[in-house]
Amino acid sequence: MIFSNSRTPTIVLRLQQFEGPLDLLLHLIEQRDLDITEVSLLAVTEQYLAHLREAERLNLDAFADIWEREGFTLDSVRHVKTLGETVSDRLRARVKAVTGLRIEDNYSSQEVGPIAIQCASSGLYHVMGETLIVEVLDANGEPCAEGEAGRAVVTDLHNFASPMIRYDIGDFAVPGAPCPCGRGLPTLQRILGRERNLIVKADGSRHWPLVGFHRFDEAAPVRQYQFVQHTVRDIEFKVVTDSPLTPGQREKLAEIANDALGGGLEIRITETRLRLPIGANGKFEEFVSLVQA
User: Fold this and answer.
1) Is the pLDDT reported for residue 3 higher than 60?
2) Of 61, 146, 174, 238, which has fewest CB within 10 angstroms of its CB?
3) In the prediction, which pLDDT does 88 show?
4) Quick one: pLDDT at residue 52?
5) Which domains are delineated in the chain?
6) Which own/partner pairs from 109-113 qualify as long-range (CB within 8 Å, at least 24 positions apart)?
7) Which long-range contacts (CB under 8 A, 24 or more apart) does 278-283 make?
């Protein structure tokens, strides 16, 4: 997929009789400047489906790369909504810088559908309290206090065929305060993602990792990053940069990450110039722990 300065995605076709944007091909056919019988509709369909598959593969971070590289304007965009992946603070800051808009996230699952929708006013997530009961529980199964991270469990109220009662959806979340927008629905402060996205401390506890991304520019221009926790102390810090890092830059990046994560860790930096791949689940995760608590 490429993007033109017309602000819309352009599908480029490469056929025996034609090479160029799909909209131009349709225009030529409509104006009878090109006989439709001379065009392989099978080839058009195959390339169009390939374009759709590529669009599904790209996440919002990848689109931000394209926006920055192509430099096209986004005047017609009024909202940036996300669905199906955990939205990090770094991604929120990047999209805001590129588009001038704040991400409005939708939290949902295949099992129960929409769970919470982010308020455009406050940034809190409004729980779909008309159809669901969402609880955030600590390690002892007790409700978490406001601002305390815990496991999200869901009870659906309108599934009469196979109801889910206190279903452990596998995500961690933080309960929030009443929303100042005036809606009376319960709120979540943030969605933290799966257990594998939490760092494991030496005492076996898991916490949401703060990695210090807002300070990375002090050391080097990092385009993308990912942390992989191999052991309690061993953390691999994968970075994507346009050019090789100097020893000083590597040392500074490791220092920033170590300080943000609480110290006492061995940070190993690995570099690449290529975009880091998404996982088998179709999502990109900025922190992955391989440690079993």
Assistant:
1) no
2) 146
3) 79
4) 56
5) 2-57 (no CATH), 80-192 (2.30.38), 200-289 (3.30.300)
6) 109/154, 109/169, 111/154, 111/164, 111/167, 111/169, 112/154, 112/156, 112/159, 112/164, 112/167, 112/169
7) 278/57, 278/59, 282/56, 282/57, 282/84, 283/59, 283/84, 283/85, 283/86
